[in-house]
Amino acid sequence: MAAAARPGPEELALLEKLLGLPKGNKYGVQGERKVPVLQTNNGPGLTGLITIAAHLVKQARKDQLLGSTAEEKAVVQQWLEYRVTQVDGCSSKEDTRIILKNLNIHLEDKVYLAGNIFTLADVLMYYGLHHVMAWPLFSALVVTTGTAAAAERCASHLSLCRQEGELNLFQHFQAGDLI
Predict the structure, then answer these.
(1) Which of 23, 85, 136, 147 measures 20 to 30 Å from 129, CA to CA?
(2) What is the pLDDT of the chain when averaged over all its residues?
């Protein structure tokens, strides 16, 4: 399996668009690890997927995507960190198995990563994992790791998005399909 796609300007531009923000932000990458950067007009640039994504959510006044209670906010932050530290660093089939197994265990009794609410963690985890779902050996991986429940949910959302010609889970959130 090829290394996981690194988050970059395309993912952030898509998030920006899906949040209903006007175009105009300038995104780039920095360093060897190609960490996302947002060039701002009002001060220093912002660095890092989580930082920039949270900034865009607040800019769009969709703070509920960051969680409502202190506990939800902590869980959202936990899964955003998992996305950056584990999913983005995934480099082998075994890494992928572990990630999918962890997600499956976590989602056994939940609808979304933070429980029953759709959050930024779900959006970014989806974007971080959708390349895995397109991976030819994905179905074999699901069978061998027992991640069928999580994969089924993700595949269902992926299928919804593909029917409309776009891999765009957030569009379904905005339309109320995931609430």
Answers:
(1) 23
(2) 76
Kind and range of the H or E element at 131? helix 120-133
Paired tokens of 41: 């007009």
For tokens 């190609």, the residue is: 34
User: Phi/psi of residue 30, each to 5°?
Assistant: -135, 140
B/e letters for 27-39, b = 16+ CB within 10 Å, e = fewer, are: beeeeeeebbbbe
DSSP 6: P
Of 132-136, 141-145, 154-158, the range with the lowest mean pLDDT is 141-145
Output the six-digit token pair for 48.
């890092």
| Exposed / middle / buried, residue 128 (Cβ in 10 Å: 0-12, 13-18, 19+) | buried
> What helix, strand, coil percent values describe the chain, rounded to 5?
60, 10, 35
How much is the pLDDT for 82? Answer: 94
What's the pTM value of the predicted model, to 2 decimals?
A: 0.73
Q: Which residues pair with 28 in a beta bridge?
A: 37
